[in-house]
Amino acid sequence: MNYRTATLKDLHQLSELFDAYRRFYRKETDIVGAKSFLEKRISNNDSELFVAETTENKLVGFVQLYPLFSSTRMKKFWLLNDLFVHPESRSKGVSIALIEKAKALVRESKACGMFLETEKSNLIGNSLYPKTGFELNMSSNFYEWSVK
Asked: Which residues contact 128 (CB under 8 A, 6 or more apart)?
């Protein structure tokens, strides 16, 4: 398995994976929208997007991170926003390797850390993240405001 930065050449396969990821979170399928969204992220260089690629050049997973800043720590902080592995490639260490790629980015960028959010019902993620060194933050409340 090869783990590398996504490029515009990956858009077709990556869009399909991204659409499957969105469907996992009960969103309507939208391949065209997924392709447009990812093309903008890659072209604008406003996220870090790593893919897992088989020896047959098939993309089977990805992780996407967005840069943020911690004012109190006065350092960059990364949001691990998206992590997905195709169901046929799960339980083979792909997710762990993608998280390790994210950790390397944190270290290389001299950031102070990264955080993520997942649904309580995401049993796979809630089992995976503690195994990879993430700790559940019980001392903070997470609030969200959305445009209606």
From this structure: 95, 96, 99
